[in-house]
Amino acid sequence: MKKNKGFDSTMEKLARGTASKTGRRGFIGKLGGFIVGAGLLPLLPVDRRGRMKEANATTTGTMDRSGFQPQDQDTQACDYWRHCSIDGNLCDCCGGTLTSCPPGTELSPSSWVASCYNPGDQQTYLIAYRDCCGKQTCGRCNCLNTEGELPVYRPEFSNDIVWCFGANNDAMTYHCTISPVVGKAS
Amino acid sequence: MTIKNSVIRAGQPKQSKRFAVSLAFATILAGGTQAVIAGGAVPQQLGSEATLELMDTPTILDAPPSDPKRVYLLDAGAFHMTSTYYTIDGNNNKLLGMTDAGKLPHMMLGDNGNFMAIASTMYSRVARGTRDDYIEIIDSKTHRPIADIDIPEGRFLTGVMQRMASLSADDKHILFQQFSPSPAVGLVDLEKESFVKMMPIPDCYHLFPVPDQKFFMHCRDGSLLEVSYDSEGKTQQKNTKVFHGEEDYLFNNPAYSNKTGHLVWPSTSGRIFQAKLTASGAEFMEPFEAFTKEQKADMWAPGGWQPVSYHNDRNEIYLLADQRDKWTHKLTSRYVFVIDGTTGKQLRRIDMGHEINGIGVSQDAEPYLFASSPGEQTLYTFDAISGEELGKIDELGRAPVLIYLPE
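ok -> structure tokens follow
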């Protein structure tokens, strides 16, 4: 068996030093206090607002008058690069994903388009936004982005239209929007 | 159109008819011995305390007659299924009443504000099911419907735009825009309270009526389409010259007067286009820049959802603006620039101190400027001349934006 004299002697010194400075009763008392205190810790008031905020996430990345500043990390934030021309609710926050509609909705076959810059690979992509239809407005992650957005007389670039045309006629109402990529814009 | 003292008749919703038949059948089955099972009956299980005679005398009020400072504010939510029009006395920021509407409705004020026509869309199962489009005529004093007109299920559903439906200049017809399956304008005869026809049109948008059964629309190429129509919905159409360039992106909510035919239409960069529309044609004025080169260098530009209003007698353009980056044209602004409609000279600037998305100026001699803040669900009132904030009314639904004022 290999001897580790260094470790043994260190532990011996530590134990002797502790024994010479600490009485048995004092040590047991402090140990007991620690155990009881640890047990009481969960009962103390704790600021849990951070966790509540996480459970009820508010819309983030909202654009202001300084313009659209895209990021490529958080798909549920309004400033995620693919959302550069969405005026509505992100399906990713409504039970869907970036490219899929939530359960029970209908996918519109028609879309409006925009060119969005991805800061991750520094490329610009053509996005064909599709509305998911047939349920009440989702309400979560409500974004107002207007990068390259054009007036209603240029409808293919307008995000003010309820783009539920061609969906099952039962589903002409707006629920949320997905952001599928068509390809590179340049 | 003169408001008739009539009950709802033409185009009564199909659901109501079916409901009435079902109700009658149920009543017969019950042999008349049981109370009718319907929403309006007083529940029999209530004790007498619930129906005691009152010392006070409850009444149902009428709104006072409309005046130039009567404000109608639309809260359509964010593409929600139902909407609310708030009727507000702008003289004292008092809420007078409300009117319900469906998804992304269009209001038209007629007869100097004595009635409102509201084009709506509803679905039989809230957000799906059978679509039903209709137009209600509402008395602006009683706030009760006096006519209900069924129309084809073709209303163009967009973020709320004032000029996607319009009364004719003489209030005898209603025009509404269809986008799908093909562009068209619906014609409604208000005197007969009936739909006439969908009139095919090319790729043009917005409705600007002029006398003699004519209206103009704005087309993709930057021209106006002049349309005349007869009582059967037969049209004659021709385009005007192109009056703005492809890169001049015009806002979705211009200012237009059905009475004077004056159109004021800013671009997102701050170029102001104007036209005088009559039955004889369109007369375009020389466009001008709302902001100086220095102001443009400081990033001043218009922005908001309803960014422009025009005072007919004062010839003043009210333009909602702020310092902003490009492509932020639908975000709120904090300032209104008052500009002479002829010279383009800036007359004054109103610092509202709030994030405003829609504005409207009353047409009287001492005008008020009304400003909507969807984020605060509040309507602010300013003296349009001095710029002083005079008052506000809050708790107005979810996201109220569009302001309607009688002419």
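The first helix of chain A runs from residue 5 to 21.
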